[in-house]
Amino acid sequence: GTLVKIAQVTPYDYHHPGGVAEHIIHLREQFVQLGHEVVVMSPRSSKGGIQIEEGFYGIGRTISIPGNGSKVRLTFDVTLYNAVKEMMRHEQFDIVHMHEPLTPVLPAMVLLNSHSVNVATFHAYRDSNAWYSALKPYLTFLLTKLDAKIAVSEPAREFNSQYFDGPFEIIPNGIDTTRFREAYEPFPWARDAAPRILFVGRYEEQRKGFKYLLRAMPLVRQQFPEARLVVVGNGRPEKFEDTISKYGIWGVDFVGMVPAEQLPRYYASCDLFCAPSIHGESFGIVLLEAMASGKPVVASNIPGYASVMTDGREGLLAEPRDPASLALAIVRMLSDSGLRQRVAEQGLKTAASYAWPSVAKRVLHTYETARERALVSGRREHD
Hints:
The chain is of the alpha/beta class. The protein has helices at residues 19-33, 81-91, 106-112, 130-134, 136-143, 154-161, 210-223, 241-246, 263-268, 285-292, 303-306, 323-334, 337-352, 356-376, and strands at 5-9, 37-42, 50-53, 56-59, 62-67, 70-75, 95-99, 117-122, 148-151, 169-170, 196-200, 228-232, 252-256, 272-275, 297-300, 315-318. α1 crosses α14 (356-376) and α7 (210-223) packs across α12 (323-334).
């Protein structure tokens, strides 16, 4: 199609790593390769005011508020409303793409001042949201300005359609299949015969369900006495000392945070990947990274995970909060090399459909249909 000028807007500090920032970085990279012009608009951490760089506008400061079990950094700098208004008039974007459009306050400021085709992606999936209900009249007004709505997963769509009607396109998060792939060399410590199970994430967060995987380990070791659990991610191992001594758990290696470029080697060094989260995952990105690395997956059967994998196809789904169910799935996987190979091959295929180039194409297609919709409804001055 035609080349367009696109704004990507996020309520979170863009220079602070997180799912939404990653999403935007990759979309931008794909769009720019195809010749489109992309400007990112985001709050700019601790400083207020406005910062303008090539392809980046930092607007207002962020503050940290806890939410959904992890800290988020948002902007609440309403004083910059006029600056945003001026900027939007000056830039004349063809497409304005807001991420988490209902999270205060930047997306709203941009949307209210946008004369472009407006698209929004809903990333989050929560069990309920008090202020959605409280602010519903205001949010509904905002959302009449949207020409297309994207949800990253079926659970995210279901959650958001409780509050907002109209169709949602489901376009998943992408994964970097150039980064996660089979070709990595395992670490020297992985050359022994011990079966290894990999966990990646902030294991102290309750919703990650790590303690259920810990408690599954003695059951796994009854069948595979050499089995080890490799734990990658931030946290304090000592928080689990009580559980470990109470259940007589052995063979757990806490490796802490690892540099991003080393993470794929950890996948290469283990036999299977396990994600025991109990709720709050809108999208199984870690599962897809494991699949792209050619690894079988054992995950808890929660909506965000079941939306990217099917029990028996890319791996096995276990009951959430159930050490015995996890252990059973892990043992079944470790004891059947045919199953491991079959699910790993299917996993590679599934992961490929989430590669960023194909995700970006789907987003561009949504822009196109949104432009047509905007023209038909006569809601756009230019074109």
